[in-house]
Structures are given as structure tokens and as C-alpha cells.
Amino acid sequence: MKPLNQIARKKSLLLFILLYLLSVGLLFTSVFYHYQVPKLENRVLRDELLYQESQQVLRDSFMTRLATVKQELIAVNEPGNNAIYTDQIIAATLAGMRNMIPASNPNFSFYDDVVQCCLQLQQCKQQLRESTQSQQIIMTLKTENATLLQQLESRTRDLDNCRMLLVNSRAQ
Predict the structure, then answer these.
(1) Global pTM?
(2) CB atoms inside a 10 Å sphere around CB 98
């Protein structure tokens, strides 16, 4: 005994299987994209993290060298310090700092400005050292001038005394 609606039942079963497979396929596709998109995002974020870490290493190295330059600039004009040697160390460190920054770095101008400011500060320290030496020479010359003025006054008095004695001796 065959059912009377066998064709309708087969048609309904095939439609059900088709819709079931379509919904399961849609489910698997959404799960697939759900896990694929974060992989791309993770890759982009990982690249950004590596870039930021390299920038942090660069900043740390730059700051360490900057602290060294700062200490040397403080100590350059202290008495008993070899200023020429210290200036050479500062110049070499600043050149290394300038060379360690790639030109493609977005903050290149900032780092370059910091290095240029340190170079200007070093030049000002050199001028201050030269000015201090000039001031010492001026003070020495002022002291010598005061001594010579005292000697001149003493000689002038002696000359006046001699003239008075000469005038007195002629008058007698």
C-alpha cells in the first residue's frame, strides 16, 4: 500500500534537506568568518605592537644617551675637569644619537631638535668657558692696573718732592 501523496512528501523532504543544509552552511560560514577576521585583526595589531615596541626601545636608548649628555654638560665646566675631552665625548654621543634615529621615523624632527638643542647648549658652555677665562684675564689686568697706578702716584709724589727740593735749593 503506497501513500497517495508520495510525490508531495518527497518534495517536502527535499525542500527540508535543502533548507537545513543552507542554514547549516550559513552557520558554518559565519563561524568561519568569525574566526578569520580576528586573525587578520590580530596580525595587524601584532604588527602595530612590534612597531610600538621598537619605538619604545628607540626612545629608551635615546633617553639613556640624553641623560649621559646631560651629566657631561653639567660636569664640563667644573674645575679640574678636562673640558676638551668632555666636549669630544659630548659631540660623539650626540652624533651617535643623531645617527640612531631613522629619517623615516615620524618623530624624526623632534629627536633632531633635541640633539640640536644639546649642541647649542654645548656651544654656549664653550662660550661661557671662554668668557670666564676672559674675565679672569680682565681681573688680572685690573689688579695690575691698580698696582701700576699706585706706583705712578708714588713716583709722581717723589717727582714733586724732588722738584720742590730743586726749587728750594735754587732759591737759597
Answers:
(1) 0.60
(2) 15
